[in-house]
Design brief:
Number of helices: 9
CATH class of the largest domain: Alpha Beta
Shape: globular
Number of strands: 15
Number of domains: 2
Bound molecules: coenzyme A
Strand order of the largest sheet: 1-7-6-4-5
Helix content: 25-40%
CATH superfamily of the largest domain: Thiolase/Chalcone synthase
Structural class: alpha+beta
């Protein structure tokens, strides 16, 4: 089995920290110091959609492998913000012309992409499917309260995609995944009957931060131990891009050199399920991540949920 192919898409509209500081009581300095984020991209109502972003990322990912849409067996759209609550994966199938594939959505917030790759791996290892497109896409800007300075500074929109395919070598070296519903109230986007829709994103930032800096290193250590790797055997750590301080804290705790910690958060913010494949796409496109490199990707977020996957790229 191999994980290969990469694609990423961002909407054109940029919102800088300075622009946010004109709407809520915050500053570029506060946001950069506390999060590492400088700007984020958002889908503007009426122009662009989750499906459009996901399609662009998917086309790039397929093109980088040479696998034709008609060869794809399964499309897994990992997203918490589909254009259609019945699911948006079928629209990706249609848009790509991947008519042989079955397509469905998988929701696990910011852990979605990692959960998607692990799910895809089971279908590959069982021999059920040969090519699975895993797409991570979110447009959380639709569900952010733009007057809440505690959350609106963090999130951005985007999509990223990879292909998981059968191969003579199994390059999935290890994985772990977990859920703790007790923490569901710390970060959510619940249905609100009085609004006949969804409430804006609620987050207890301090507790989510504490959760992340505890569970992410534990997950990495678990995967390393089970797969007989040392932290230094891994070429790249791609953590969910939620906060630069979380990435720095994890690097420090595990003794990982900062240059191995992939980061594009300054430009895109927290793009939820898109975060890991977008960062992977950035580094693969610039030639920093190379075929054969060992990558540890770790997602975490609402649920609470978290999970990681160690694989050899390409
Ligand atoms: N601008 C300026 N001040 C802000 C602010 C903003 N955007 N947001 C909060 N503040 C204020 C608070 O009101 C508080 O003021 P007070 O001391 O007068 O009460 C102060 O800054 C400190 O707030 P606090 O919430 O303790 O800040 P923090 O250092 O914990 O940083 C987050 C806040 C959200 C950046 C941080 O908690 C975080 O990143 N948490 C994890 C979030 C995450 O990863 N979410 C996604 C998971 S998928």
């Amino acid at each position: 089995m191999r994980i290969w192919g990469h694609g990423g898409a961002l909407p054109p509209q940029i919102i800088t920290n300075e622009q946010l500081a004109q709407q809520v009581d915050t500053s570029d300095e506060w946001i950069v110091t506390r999060t590492g984020i400088k700007e984020r991209r958002v889908v503007v109502n009426g122009s662009g959609s989750l499906v459009a972003l996901a399609l662009e990322a998917s086309r790039q990912a397929l093109a980088s492998t040479g696998v034709a849409p008609i060869e794809v067996d399964l499309i897994l759209l990992t997203s918490s913000t589909p254009d259609d609550l019945f699911g948006s994966a079928a629209q990706i199938q249609q848009g790509l012309g991947a008519y042989r594939s079955v397509a469905f959505d998988l929701t696990a917030a910011c852990s979605g992409f990692v959960f998607g790759v692990i799910t895809a791996a089971q279908f590959i290892r069982s021999g059920t499917f040969r090519h699975i497109l895993v797409v991570g896409a979110d447009v959380l800007s639709r569900w952010v309260d733009w007057q809440d300075r505690g959350t609106c500074i963090l999130f951005g929109d985007g999509a990223g995609a990879v292909l998981v395919s059968s191969h003579s070598r199994d390059n999935l070296l290890g994985f772990a995944m977990a859920t703790d519903g007790k923490g569901g109230g710390l970060l959510n986007l619940p249905y609100a009957p009085d609004r006949s829709g969804f409430a804006p994103i609620f987050m207890n930032g301090k507790e989510v931060y504490r959760f992340a800096v505890t569970k992410v290193p534990e997950t990495i250590e678990e995967i390393l131990a089970k797969s007989h790797h040392q932290p230094q055997d891994v070429d790249w750590y791609i953590l969910h891009q939620a906060n630069q301080r979380i990435m720095d804290a994890v690097a420090l705790r595990l003794g990982v050199a900062p240059h191995k910690m992939v980061s594009n958060i300054a430009q895109v913010g927290n793009t939820s399920a898109a975060s890991i494949p977008l960062a992977l796409d950035d580094y693969a496109r610039s030639g920093q991540i190379k075929p054969g490199d060992k990558i540890m990707a770790v997602g975490f977020g609402a649920g609470l949920s978290w999970g990681g996957v160690l694989f050899q790229w390409g």
